[in-house]
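Hey L., structure's done. Input below.
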Amino acid sequence: MRQLFRLPRTLGRRNDHGSLVAIAPSRAAIPSPTPTPGRAAARFLPGALALLALAAACDPPAPPAPTIAIDSAGVRIVTSDPIGSTASCTLSPEPIFSIGDSEDDDNQWFSSVRGVGRLSDGSVAVADRASAEVRIFAPDGSHLLSMGRHGEGPGEFQDPFVLWALPGDTLWVGDYRPWRYVVFTREGEWVRNVALDPMYPNPSRGGGVLDNGVSVNALDKSARARDFAARDTLVVEAHDRDGRRIGVLARLPARTMGRATDTDAYNYYISPYFDSRAEVDARERAIALAHTSTAEVRLFDEEFRLRSIVRWEVPNQEVTAADLRTWREEYVIRRNTGSNVWDDDFDGPMISSQRPVADVMPVLSSVLVGRDGRLWVRPYRRPGGDATRWMAFAREGEFLCHLERLPPGSNFDVWEFGADYALGLRTSDLGVETVLVHALHGPGEGDGEANAAEGESR
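Output:
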């Protein structure tokens, strides 16, 4: 495995899994990986995870938001080689919990699931957008209670978006406009609304709610000229349990946007093919910051201390003409399948030869902090390739396993990882949504081994 950065010999060691572990000196500058040809050729976006500095033009309006001082003393830098590892985690072939397809219970029909969360007794909470309800289902799938409805009063939603289950099974449900959190007890009793100060007119672009009630929220700051020449900025902020802004945690490069050509659509902006973006997730006692251009995730604790930097080696991500051609072909098929309806004004520019193309593909597509503190990273899928496997890392940064895929046609999209389960959504070709929980097994554990063997045969 290539070492992607150089540290004093006394500060680095290899653990039993072959990961390179480095302990940074107090207040040290944290080195960024230097790409090398071949496997590590994904281009590092300069400053993609610089935590406290971007151009002043991207600062919020006066009065300026305070910046959170980041304590990086003793940060662990761990570099792994997942490609060379055969360690696998598996999901149970059949779900251990399933709701959404019972014709005998109207509560099991969802119009648009916007959030899910598992409670301490195995019950599952589901936020449904159209009904503006949060419904709780017992471990056997039976409906227990519902909370919320459309409105602007106590315990009512304008547009429920996502949810988090905190200790004691307190539910924090995102709602907008403006962006706020509506808090309920496990029994469905409304507790309070938490509005952000200053106000967010639109939903947060990432983040979450920590166990201590601190929320991490993100908003886009558009580049002054959206002409594909400059990136937008994602401003990541922390707010206390009453919604007051604590300060800015990070400013990260976001999308590169520009006006679409060859369309009659008014003010239609798109990003280049294979554009990268910032990713933010927060849960339990951890905050994860990443940029999809870089094989790196920075993990902070609930007191905003930088605890670890997780890095891994990746294959060559250079964009080829074949990649571009395959992406366009897949897009056309996807937009003409099921309930989708092709629209020349909006879909045409997406496959246009006038649309700019990034030099390299993203390295990752999403990041999730597990309920048990593990970090889960979903690699980016190259056009024409198989669905990628989630990668699990320990809270200290070491690579743990690849999550083997379920059989083709399962269409299971993970929204939440626990110590021994994965909770998510399956959407049929007709748009029917089913909420599922699969048992999660570590390497060599449980009945998921049959699933892994099945995956190896494909």
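Helices lie at 321-335, 344-347, 449-457. The longest helix spans residues 321-335.

-- N.
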